[in-house]
Specification:
By secondary structure, the protein is mainly alpha-helical. It is built from 14 helices and four strands. The chain has a two-stranded antiparallel ribbon with strand order 1-2. A two-stranded antiparallel ribbon has the order 3-4. Helix 1 crosses helix 11 and helix 2 runs parallel beside helix 10. The longest helix has 43 residues. It is globular, with a radius of gyration of 21 Å. The two termini are 37 Å apart.
Length: 369
């Protein structure tokens, strides 16, 4: 999940103004994640839950949030020192993640359901250390939504290192982008041919099969700021769409099966993000009364993303046990996610981010004195 800040410099007032178009796109992506988890993945992971009347079976929203995250890394990376930029991203992402893991762990133990995953304290530690991508057979997710967090941490770190070097500018960054999207495509046949475990650990641990999501975010920024032409952007976009299609192949007893619904959804989303970046703000078509609500939800979207899934499944199961139907279960899961996400944002994300940034600025001022 990307940062909650969607501020962009205004060329007219010299102040930073919030673009409602980005808030709307981010909010829609988070809603897609929630709907996918509540209507499809809930009953897939827990078949005893009653089938949902309406089902959204495509994994789209989380991938697009990584695209948006990469785009805004480019927008914000030149503001201030590189160390402050990196520290700011860590201060934004890590404290609410830690808080979410601890709260979800406590809920899973307090409201334990027979036959469901009951995490131990060692599994809590493994989740806090984000070990699942490296060895999913040994370390289970306390909340499956959290897979994006280590990828964002790595992405922001790589972005800072690249920007600090010559490889983050001009023709060299274009070469880096092409390598980052073509290398995973080239190794895909090996990835799906039962490779050695060490290979899988490294490739999945660094999220190579999702690099194209970061590449397309950077490419959108380059194109929207006229640093590359439409032809170059189109070629990078096509390569990233190819990477997404390959990523969405799953190994089954019958062989490889493509998830074209998710692929098409993510590819359409890439185009929407590109249009949002290149075009004007949508403030003229979004009513004022609705814009405020969209901005509010976008502001808590990271907390909602972190908190809605596992606790929502527990809420659904508890409600089913007392006779509540599937539609109200879905509504309850969505409402629970929003309430818990708002609480995490207010209690953890915003105050810890302010505290950590103020601490950094005070320390930097002392060093300069």
């Amino acid at each position: 999940m990307p940062e909650t800040s969607t501020l962009r410099a205004s060329t007219t007032s010299g102040k930073r103004t919030r673009k409602i178009s980005w808030d709307l796109v981010r909010s829609l992506c988070v809603i897609l994640v929630m709907v996918y988890h509540s209507t499809y993945l809930s009953t897939y992971l827990h078949p005893e839950l009653a089938p949902r009347t309406l089902v959204f079976p495509w994994q789209v929203g989380a991938s697009l949030l990584l695209v948006i995250s990469a785009y805004f890394a480019c927008v914000t990376i030149g503001r201030g020192t590189m160390l402050r930029y990196w520290w700011g991203r860590m201060a934004r992402l890590l404290p609410p993640f830690i808080g979410a893991v601890v709260v979800i762990f406590a809920v899973m133990r307090w409201a334990a359901i027979d036959g469901w995953f009951h995490p131990t304290y060692s599994e809590l530690a493994a989740n806090l250390l984000m070990l699942w991508n490296w060895n999913p057979g040994e370390h289970y997710f306390i909340d499956g939504s959290h897979w994006t967090v280590p990828l964002q941490l790595m992405g922001f770190t790589v972005a800072a290192l690249l920007f600090k070097s010559a490889w983050g500018h001009g023709r060299r960054i274009r070469a880096v982008l092409w390598v980052a999207v073509l290398l995973p495509i080239a190794q895909w046949p090996l990835r799906v041919s039962d490779p050695p475990e060490l290979y899988r650990t490294i490739v999945d641990g660094i999220g190579m099969h999702r690099w194209h999501l970061f590449v397309v975010g950077v490419a959108i920024w380059l194109w929207s700021t006229r640093r590359i032409g439409l032809g170059h952007f189109g070629a990078l976009l096509a390569a990233c769409m190819t990477g997404q299609a390959l990523h969405n192949y799953a190994e089954t007893p019958e062989g490889l099966v493509a998830d074209w619904g998710s692929t098409v959804g993510v590819c359409i989303g890439m185009l929407v993000v590109a249009i949002t970046a290149y075009g004007p703000d949508w403030n003229r078509v979004v009513p004022t009364w609705l814009a405020g609500r969209i901005t509010w939800f976008a502001g808590i979207s990271y907390g909602v993303f972190l908190m809605h899934q596992t606790v929502g499944y527990i809420v659904s199961r508890k409600l089913q046990d007392v006779g509540v139907g599937p539609t109200l279960q879905t509504v309850a899961m969505l409402v629970t996610g929003v309430v818990l996400g708002w609480a995490l944002t207010r209690v953890v994300e915003r105050p810890t981010h302010r505290f950590l940034m103020h601490g950094y600025d005070r320390l930097a001022a002392r060093k300069q004195a």
